[in-house]
Task: inverse folding
């Protein structure tokens, strides 16, 4: 037992960290690139089996990542027919399928949109893919269908923005009607890219509207990278909490656009401020049902290292915000004691919680330093040797 394990603070630490789980994405383990190039990593996963193996290793090291987000087209290319194989991997690796991510951006027919395409038959194909994804979710016992739409247009006047809103409302209502009672539809937004004039779901207000018109099981998904540079994301989170519309997060960091950088690598204070809003809402008695997911795909960093680093960073920032004395903060806020409030708030951010997360891991029988444990395990070198020759063969075709 460390000295921390006996303190009152440690009870709070356990309460916070025991309740914080984070979902990792299957695509975070695969080779991906930028639109300019792809630097292939020999250790990257190329099959669904390898993605499950990597996820299991991250969960073994951190103890808080029991689910793997799946991408329908990449992980279940045959749709429902692939479900039994995925279930076998779940049992073998002790990892459950997490959110199901439909793919409405890759097929050629989606050049001018999917659920918002001006052609009714293409919209129908897109809805059919959504319904397939919902059925896959039911079969796998996955609760969340996580929708990100690439739809939009590149030039003014080329599309009817309003007609596309109507098509989208209709499509999401149909999807919602097919959800099982315990399923949710999460609607993600993004201001631009790949469309550069208008994006059909550009911000949280549009997501919230579409979720409300879809039905009571739809919620907004906040991807931290999907905002303009100066946007106050914690204020958006506060609004979504207040209105009961916050469904979950895709975590990553950004400096310029949707950069897919490791969570907290550029602005850890922002993630702390977001977590503060969540802890504050919980303390005020709001009912929360928030899915924490990572959405990062690293082109340069090692996939396994980046994933473990992200989970550890998320835990540290979550804990810093959990340990903030909110009663004291409320006193300062009420008195409009600005400097005291700010100093108290940022003091919690500067609190080094790493000895506490370490003590919690030891108390839970987990490696005290997951990143170091990854290095010592030799896992990356092992899979590099196993997978490397196959990647070399694959990349020579590309
Ligand atoms: Mn995302």
Result:
């Amino acid at each position: 037992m460390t000295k921390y394990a006996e303190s009152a603070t440690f009870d709070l630490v356990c309460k916070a960290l025991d309740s914080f789980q984070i979902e990792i994405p299957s695509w975070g383990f695969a080779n991906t690139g930028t639109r300019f190039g792809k630097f292939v990593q020999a250790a990257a996963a190329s099959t669904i089996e390898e993605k499950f193996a990597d996820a299991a290793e991250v969960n073994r090291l951190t103890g808080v990542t029991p689910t793997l987000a799946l991408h329908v087209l990449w992980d279940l290319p045959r749709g429902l027919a692939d479900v039994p194989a995925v279930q076998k991997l779940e049992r073998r690796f002790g990892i459950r399928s997490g959110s199901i991510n439909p793919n409405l951006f890759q097929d050629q027919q989606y050049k001018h949109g999917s659920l918002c395409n001006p052609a009714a038959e293409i919209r129908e194909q897109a809805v059919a893919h959504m319904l397939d994804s919902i059925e896959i979710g039911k079969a796998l016992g996955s609760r969340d269908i996580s929708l990100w739409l690439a739809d939009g247009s590149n030039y003014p006047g080329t599309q009817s923005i309003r007609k596309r809103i109507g098509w989208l409302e209709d499509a999401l209502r149909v999807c919602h009607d097919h959800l099982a009672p315990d399923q949710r539809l999460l609607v993600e937004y993004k201001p631009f890219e790949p469309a550069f004039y208008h994006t059909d779901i550009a911000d949280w207000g549009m997501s919230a509207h579409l979720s409300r018109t879809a039905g009571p099981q739809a919620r907004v998904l906040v991807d931290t990278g999907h905002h303009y540079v100066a946007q106050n994301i914690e204020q958006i989170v506060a609004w979504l909490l207040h209105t009961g519309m916050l469904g979950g997060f895709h975590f990553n960091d950004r400096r310029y656009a949707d950069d897919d950088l490791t969570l907290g690598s550029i602005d850890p204070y922002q993630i702390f401020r977001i977590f503060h809003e969540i802890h504050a809402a919980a303390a005020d008695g709001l009912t929360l049902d928030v899915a924490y997911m990572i959405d990062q795909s690293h082109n340069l960093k090692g996939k396994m290292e980046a994933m473990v680093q992200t989970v550890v960073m998320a835990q540290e920032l979550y804990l810093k915000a959990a340990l903030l004395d909110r009663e004291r903060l409320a006193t300062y806020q009420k008195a409009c004691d600005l400097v005291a409030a700010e100093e108290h708030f940022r003091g919690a951010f500067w609190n080094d919680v790493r000895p506490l997360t370490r003590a919690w891991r030891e108390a839970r029988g987990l490696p005290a330093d997951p990143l170091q444990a990854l290095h010592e395990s030799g896992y990356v070198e092992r899979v590099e040797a196993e997978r490397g020759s196959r990647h070399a063969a694959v990349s020579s075709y590309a």
Summary: Confidence is low (pLDDT under 50) at residues 394-398. Strands lie at 24-25, 67-71, 96-101, 144-147, 152-153, 184-188, 198-199, 218-223, 246-251, 291-294.
